[in-house]
Design brief:
There is one protein chain. The chain is built from two helices and nine strands. The protein has 97 residues and is mostly beta strands. A hairpin with a 4-residue loop joins strand 6 (60-63) and strand 7. The two termini are 15 Å apart. It holds the Pfam family gag-asp_proteas.
């Protein structure tokens, strides 16, 4: 799996964009990144939001600078609101960021 460098560093690029969103009534910064192969959430954010995390067999995620971080589990059926639009993520991988 891949997560772009912009996702890790927090910078945007021509292929990414930051917007405000809401999960469980809490404001979050959402990085929309067309270079990422799937959806990720910071484990710290997942814990702060008290999202139910399912421990999974760890796997490595390659980030944009070539380094690897280990997936720490997943969160299922997370509702993200951006303005009046709701997006339900069936599965989001929790990674250290």
């Amino acid at each position: 799996m891949q997560l772009s460098l912009q996702s890790i560093t927090g910078f945007t690029s021509k292929k990414s964009l930051k917007v405000w969103g809401t999960i469980l009534g809490k404001k979050v910064i959402v990085l929309i990144d067309s270079g990422a192969s799937t959806n990720f959430i910071s484990r710290t954010v997942a814990e702060a939001l008290r999202l139910k995390q399912t421990e999974t067999k760890p796997f490595l995620v390659e980030v944009g600078n070539g380094q690897h971080v280990k997936s720490m589990g997943s969160c299922k059926e997370v509702e993200l609101w951006i303005d009046e639009y709701m997006i339900i993520f069936f599965l989001i991988w929790a990674v250290p960021m």
